[in-house]
């Protein structure tokens, strides 16, 4: 059913086959910011520009990552099927490791639209209970179709959309994308989202982020908390609701807030 990248046979790959090391990609820039090695000079230059104007970028990226670990561990106590869209280059620990510590038999599917991410994930983490698939979050129907046979849609699923929806433009209808996924998800499914917000962030920081990301091939969309909250329509937000990722059930007191905010939450599908 799957090609070497876990891509459904016969499915048009479109942009997914295009690999340009000379253009920064969100996944490889993020990998560099997290301290990874799977990136090229264009990614490193872009990441350095981000960190020049925004030195706390690395701290925020790790706060986001830790939110995902805590939220995924929570979900693994309730469901045993995970779909991680915008899964990224494997960072230790990866999502499947976190889930399998709690629920060893859980099925975890990583989906991404970056061929370099897919190659790394396929080589490093695909295996027993872990599937890697090419897919674009802007085409939710295609992702749902390609998961038939891997995911049992009659049972609850945890869907992870961490630090990916802010790369989706308004024209691509982020709320409509979530509505399509929600229709496929059984009641009791859990949706984990984190997203950069402009609320409560100084204009100086917003201008700086716009300066580096404004003309990037995949710009960052800073949305309001209300817009991000709207992505959880049709779900009940678990405590403590939609909050700074540092404040979502923190496990220690090392988390601190900075002047750029990523909001995170977990919604339970009604
Ligand atoms: C900032 S990284 C986040 C990685 C991981 N979710 C995390 O939070 O640690 C964003 C990821 O989303 C992927 N991505 C961006 N746009 C996407 C799209 N339209 N469809 C699927 N994945 C996308 C990128 O390739 C990248 O791997």
Based on helices, strands and strand pairing, what is the structural class? alpha/beta
How many beta strands in the DSSP annotation?
Answer: 8
Note the run of SSEs as H and E: HHHEHEHEHEHEHHEEE
Per DSSP, the total helix count is 9
- Overall pLDDT metric: 90
What is the first-to-last residue Cα distance?
32 Å
User: Any low-confidence stretches, pLDDT <50, length ≥5?
Assistant: 1-17
* Shape annotation: globular
Oligomer: single chain
CATH architecture: 3-Layer(aba) Sandwich
Q: What share of residues are in beta strands?
A: 15-25%
CATH class: Alpha Beta
Distinct bound molecules:
S-adenosylmethionine
Largest sheet: 8 strands, mixed
Question: What does it look like?
Answer:
This protein has 9 helices and 8 strands. The chain is α/β, with parallel strands linked by helices and about 270 residues long. Helix 1 (about 25-35) crosses helix 2 and helix 3 (about 55-75) packs parallel to helix 4. The model is unreliable at about 1-15 (pLDDT under 50). Helix 4 (about 95-100) links the parallel strand 1 and strand 2. It is globular and about 45 Å long. About 35% of the residues lie in helices and about 15% in strands. The two termini are about 30 Å apart. Strands 1, 2, 3, 4, 5, 6, 7 and 8 form an 8-stranded mixed beta sheet that branches. It has a single domain (about 20-270), classed as Vaccinia Virus protein VP39 (Rossmann fold). The structure holds S-adenosylmethionine (SAM). S-adenosylmethionine (SAM) binds near residues 68, 85, 112, 117 and 164.
